[in-house]
Amino acid sequence: MIAGVPFFPQDDFQCGPASLAGVLNYYGLRLTPADISAEIFSRQARGTLDMDMVFYAQRKGMKAEQYAGSIEDLQRNLDSRRPLIVLIDQGYWVYQSHHFMVAVGYDESGFVFNSGKEERKLIQRDAFLKTWEKTKFWTLRITPP
Known about the structure:
This protein has 5 helices and 8 strands, in the order ααββαβαββββαβ. The protein is of the alpha+beta class and 145 residues long. The two termini are 23 Å apart.
């Protein structure tokens, strides 16, 4: 479990700014989800676009890389005390319901996330994989320059 990753409960459709705020504050930037939302939230999309999250972190002077992750990569980053933002799809059939959350730890049963209004929420490994796979394992790693 990574200690010191700030948790920001999200408002409606604000999972992107809340996730970014948690990771950016972990690295010492003092930004609120409201600060971030004012710059990148899309009312039309009813959320935050994935590339806007990457570009926002880069504009704040951070290294930001979006890629297709894996369980091994996720564990390796968490072991190195690097929280990752992942995108899952909780939708059914053809209806998508995307959600960003911050991976902060894992154990033998699953992964621990700061997600929505829940801090350190344990999601069983198989349940997480099923929803993460639907986004092609979308992962955002943010690190200091």
